[in-house]
Structures are given as C-alpha cells and as structure tokens.
Specification:
It is a single chain. With 281 residues, this protein is mainly α. The protein has one domain. It has 11 helices and no strands. Helix 4 packs antiparallel against helix 8 and helix 10 runs antiparallel to helix 11. The chain is elongated. The N and C termini lie far apart (48 Å). It holds the Pfam family ABC2_membrane_3. Keywords: Antibiotic resistance, Membrane, Transmembrane, Transmembrane helix. This is Transport permease protein.
Length: 281
C-alpha cells in the first residue's frame, strides 16, 4: 500500500527533469511567437552573412593550400555562427528573463510547483533547439546561396559540434546571469544589446580579428565569444588562414579552457543570484 501511494505521488508530481523537458516545448513555441526575437536573434546572422558576402564579393580573404580563393561568405560563415550563439543565448535569455521578471511572469511561476532547475532546463533547451536550427540555416544559406565549400572530414564537423554546444551553453547561462542587471523589463533591451554589440565588434565577429590592435585582441580573448569564433574558424577555414590568428595557429584547447571556465562561472552566478522576484524591485 505504501509503495502504491509513493508511486501515485511520483505520477502526480513529475520530477524536475520531466518538468524541464516539458518546459522546453513551451519555451520554443513562445520564442517563435515573438517576431522581434525571431528576427534579431534567429534571422539576423543570416541577414548579416548575406550583406557581408554581397558587399565584399570581390575581395579576397586568403587562399587555401590548393590556391583557391577564400571568399567573403566563407570567411564570415564562422563569425556568423559565433554571432548566432551569442544572440540566441546571451542576448535572447538576458532580455527574455528580465521581461518575464518585470511583467510578473516569474512571480506567478514562483507560486507554482515548478522548480528553478526545471525553469533553467526549459530555457537552456530552447536555446539549444533554436540555436541548432539557426546554425543549420546559416550553413545551408552559405553552402547553397554562396557556394561556400564545407568541410569533408568528420574531425572538422566534430569540432563544429563541440564548439557550438560549449558556446551555446556558456552563452545561455551568462544570459541568465545577465538578466539580473536590468532593473525592469522595459530597460532590458537598452542594457543588454550594447553589451552584445561591443562583444561582437571587439571579438572579430564583424571585423577581421587580425586587423584589431594586439592589445584589443588580448582583451577580446578574455571573453568566450572570441573563442567561439576562433573555434568555428579552425573547423571551417583552411589551415593556411591560421597565420592570421593571435599566435599564428589554431588554439582549440584555448577554446575549451576559456569557454569552460565561463560556463562554470556562469552557472555559479546563476545559482547565487537568480531569484523569481527582484528584492530591490
């Protein structure tokens, strides 16, 4: 009888993982119902890739080992993947959670049985789903519309995969932590977007990283977005372009180390600072 009662209770009250998995579907649907979010975080990298590929169509960004020209579309593809990681994770979640805190959504969730960890799982799952879909779309546009040659080795695609997963998880937890900074949902966009824009410019997303001053490259390498872009370049660009990087070589261990450190630090920040309701609100 006791075991039957315990089983019934487990059925009535799903665990945090089950609630989080169910929450992912809700978060994905809510994301695609917001046209501004879909444009500025989902379609924006595709738009930028199209602009750069068209504007710099006649410019040569280097040559591969066979002497073939690296086009603007090929050169900017890794950067747009890194931008997508930052926009889908950090910008999207920082603004979205700040708005939910401001409009009372989090306050209402605080009165439900939903654990904080389930809420986090829902947000992280949403970023993984939308970020992966976005990455496939960006790569597809580059390959089909601009005839960018894609890697032919499993090692290169494995690098794309782990750099993406590590980057998007890091960006997402930092977005959750950053959502505490805006004092209201109305100010979230004004606070978050300038931070994201500065990070992209100094990290070589919109500008060729090798053209930045060396001191600025060193500052950029403190942050994970520069390493996400570096990792994508290592996977998608020919090895002949490694000389344009700081140190003149691909540094995949550095990608793992810096991104991993920010992931751990972001998780700690989330656990220490996340509240359903602002105490100073």
């Amino acid at each position: 009888m006791t075991s039957l009662t315990a089983s019934a209770r487990r059925q009535q009250h799903p665990g945090a993982l089950a609630l989080g998995a169910a929450r992912i579907g809700y978060e994905v649907r809510a994301y695609f119902r917001q046209p501004d979010s879909v444009f500025f975080t989902f379609l924006f990298p595709v738009l930028l890739l199209t602009i750069f590929a068209t504007a710099f169509a006649e410019q040569e960004f280097g040559r591969d080992a066979d002497g073939e020209v690296v086009t603007a579309a090929a050169y900017y593809l890794p950067s747009m993947l890194a931008a997508g990681i930052l926009l889908s994770g950090l910008q999207n979640l920082a603004i979205d959670i700040a708005v939910e805190r401001g409009d009372g959504t989090l306050k209402r969730l605080a009165g439900t049985p939903l654990p904080v960890v389930s809420y986090f799982i829902g947000k992280l799952g949403q970023v993984l789903v939308t970020g992966a879909t976005q990455a496939v779309l960006v790569i597809g546009v580059a390959a089909i519309a601009f005839r960018v040659p894609l890697p032919t080795t499993p090692e290169a695609w494995l690098t794309v995969l782990w750099v993406f997963l590590l980057g998007v998880l890091t960006s997402a937890v930092l977005g959750i932590a950053l959502s505490r900074v805006p004092r209201s949902g109305k100010s979230a966009t004004a606070v978050v977007i300038p931070i994201v824009l500065v990070l992209q410019f100094v990290s070589g997303v919109y500008l060729q990283f090798s053209l930045l001053p060396e001191w600025l490259q060193s500052i950029a390498n403190v942050f994970p977005v520069a390493w996400a872009a570096h990792g994508m370049r290592a996977a998608l660009l020919p090895d002949t372009l490694a000389v344009l990087e700081q140190g003149e070589a691909w540094n995949l261990p550095g990608v793992a180390l810096v991104s991993g450190a920010w992931l751990v630090g972001g998780l700690v920040l989330c656990l220490l600072t996340f509240r359903w309701i602002r105490k100073d609100g």
